[in-house]
UniProtKB/TrEMBL annotation:
Higher taxonomy: Bacteria, Pseudomonadati, Pseudomonadota, Betaproteobacteria, Burkholderiales
Keyword set, alphabetical order: Decarboxylase, Flavoprotein, FMN, Ligase, Lyase, Magnesium, Metal-binding, Multifunctional enzyme
Pathway: Cofactor biosynthesis; coenzyme A biosynthesis; CoA from (R)-pantothenate: step 2/5; Cofactor biosynthesis; coenzyme A biosynthesis; CoA from (R)-pantothenate: step 3/5
Cofactor(s) needed by this chain: Mg(2+); FMN
Protein name: Coenzyme A biosynthesis bifunctional protein CoaBC
Family: In the C-terminal section; belongs to the PPC synthetase family.
Species whose genome carries this gene: Simplicispira hankyongi
Boundaries of the shown chain within the full protein: 180 to 407 of 408
Length: 228
């Protein structure tokens, strides 16, 4: 059973949240993105703020309103998100990576719109891998020393517990949160699987608003100076 939401639980903490999809340009008029709505990340930013934290939200392209009292930085590509997050992670005490970051980008975006050449053959795209924002932050000095607590999310289509457990180890984060299917993109409710060093537990299906509050409470409990 999850403890109820305690207001001001994160007073004095600096929380950094990534949210939404990224958009990877192909040319000036086209790009590749994904179905992330940003709703869960925005709800988490709001709940962290309501818990008394100073909150910075680095958001990919979504049309959601900025939660009250939250500093929002808009980005487009995974590289933009990385460039925004790395310096902010130097000051944060909690990093929550909810963004659906594109794993790959077109290797070289065309400066001009790609035109049909009339031959009926389609162009091919070459891809380059994007930097892993969460893994980079989780491997930082501050994360290792316990000054920065990192939380990852996992989007999986199957075998959630197995993949989430492996992902937690691979990313080197103390807490990895999985979305329990079916696909939750754009929905207003969700259910979460929490995987940490002790094992796993579930936050049962509820609105993203309530789940965000419960998750913030769970992060506060696990955070080094949160066991109040
Ligand atoms: N993440 C990130 N930067 C990336 C890719 C992922 O910060 N370039 C973060 C996500 O925000 C999420 C976590 O890493 O918190 C896991 O993302 P996910 O896509 O599930 O994992 P990947 O490591 O990219 O593995 P795969 O997509 O192959 O399952
Ligand atoms: Ca991925």
């Amino acid at each position: 059973v999850v403890a109820f939401f305690q207001p001001k639980r994160l007073a004095g903490q600096k929380v950094l949240v990534t949210a939404g999809p990224t958009f990877e340009a192909i040319d000036p008029v086209r790009g590749i993105t994904n179905h992330s709505s940003g709703k869960m990340g925005f709800a988490i930013a709001r709940a962290a703020r309501e818990a008394g934290a100073e909150v910075t939200l680095v958001a990919g392209p979504v049309a959601l309103p900025t939660p009250r009292g939250v500093r929002r930085i808009n980005v487009v590509s995974a590289q933009n998100m990385y460039d925004a997050v790395i310096p902010l992670a130097q000051e944060a005490t909690i990093f929550i990576a909810t963004a659906a970051v594109a794993d790959w980008r077109p290797a070289s975006a065309s400066q001009e719109k790609v035109k049909k050449d009339g031959s009926g053959t389609a162009p091919t795209l070459a891809f380059a891998e994007n930097p892993d924002i969460l893994a980079t932050v989780a491997q930082s000095e501050r994360a290792h020393s316990g000054a920065l607590y990192c939380v990852g999310f996992a989007a999986e289509s199957h075998d959630l517990l197995v993949h989430a457990t492996a992902k937690r180890a691979r990313k080197g984060v103390p807490l990895l949160v999985g979305n329990i299917g079916p696909a939750t993109f754009g929905q207003d409710d969700n259910a979460l699987l929490l995987v940490d060093a002790q094992g796993h537990s579930e936050l049962p299906r509820a609105s993203k608003r309530v789940l965000a509050q419960q998750l913030i409470e769970q992060i506060a409990v696990r955070h080094p100076d949160g066991a109040k």
